[in-house]
Structures are given as structure tokens and as C-alpha cells.
Amino acid sequence: MEVGTQGRGRRTAVIAGLLLAAGAGSRFGGGKLLHEVEGAAIGVRSARNLLAAGLTVTAVVRPGSDELSRLLTAAGCIVTECPNAADGMGVSLAHAVAHARAASGWVVASADMPRIAQETVRAVVDAVAQGALIAAPVYHGKRGHPVGFSGRLRDELLALEGDEGARAVLRRHHADIRLLEVDDAGVLFDIDRKEDVPSRL
Prior knowledge:
Layout: E1 2-3, E2 13-21, E3 36-37, E4 40-41, H1 42-51, E5 57-61, H2 66-75, E6 78-81, H3 89-99, E7 105-110, H4 118-129, E8 134-139, E9 142-143, E10 147-150, H5 154-158, H6 167-172, E11 177-181
Parallel strand pairs: 2-5, 2-7, 5-6, 8-11
Antiparallel strand pairs: 1-2, 3-4, 7-10, 8-9, 8-10
């Protein structure tokens, strides 16, 4: 998605969507992102939230995720396999950033969060495009997802490892996080176990 202020001499920011879909889903009992809600896999529904906001979406999956890769590709994502995804979310995120490294920034979403509104995604995109180093939605005082990162953090994101995800980057730049108040409970809703699966979205 190209986002920015048009005008002579001004660059247009290209913000990419990153979908983290390489988790094992062990607490769910496996197959979490393929589990269907209202006729669509959870992972696909999460991808659609980014795609509906107009983003080009890179989805990172773990080895052996052939069916998930097929579904995400059919939905419109660019799918990349992270060979060492088992080493943690930080590794998967670094892999995704490397795959979309030419972007001016990234909006990072988890594939087990299918309720995020596209308006929320757009708000995060706009904040990053307008110069925020990091942007994140807030619902009832709690920071949620997705999280936007400026391209100025490229090297820090590429250096991520282990299972901390981007938490180290968020801690390091805590004072620079632009918080966006949203009326969207989906920014806090994720699916970890089968009992978390709603009957409807």
C-alpha cells in the first residue's frame, strides 16, 4: 500500500503488512490457523483484515504448512516459509521484515487475531506513514495489535531472535510509541485454545 502526502519532492511511504503465521499452536492442540469460523480459516480471516485495508501482505509460515500456505496465497498474501520458525516469534518477524525489507514501514499482525477491524489497521498505517516510529492501537486503556514500525527500525527488527517477538524493540522505544485510541475490542482478542474460538466473528 502506498501511503503518504503527494507533492513535488516528497516521497510516498510504502507500508507493508506482515502476518505472523508460523506459530505451532500447541495450546490449541495443533491446526489452529486452519480451524474454520463461519466458513473461513482463522489465519485467512486475520489476513483479510490487513488485505481489506489495502496492504500488500507478506505471511510467514513454518515448514510443512502446505495447506495454510495454499489458503493464504489464495487469499492474496505473499507467503514465505521461515526455516527456523521453531526458534521463536522474533525469528519469524525478522524473516518477514527481511522478505519485505524495501518497505518504508510495516504493520505487524498475528494470524490468530481475526477480529481486528480494517479501520484500525488503516489508523496504524496512517500513523507510520505520517512519521511515527511505532504506532499501536489502544482499547479501554490496553495496548493491542497490530503494531506499526517505521523503516528506521529495520536493522533492529532484522536482529530479532528467540521468542520475544518485538517486545525488546517496544521496550527500547517505549517513549516513542504513538498510541491510537480505537473502538475495536478485536485489538485485544486472540485465539490460544479451542475454547477461545467464537461461534461468530
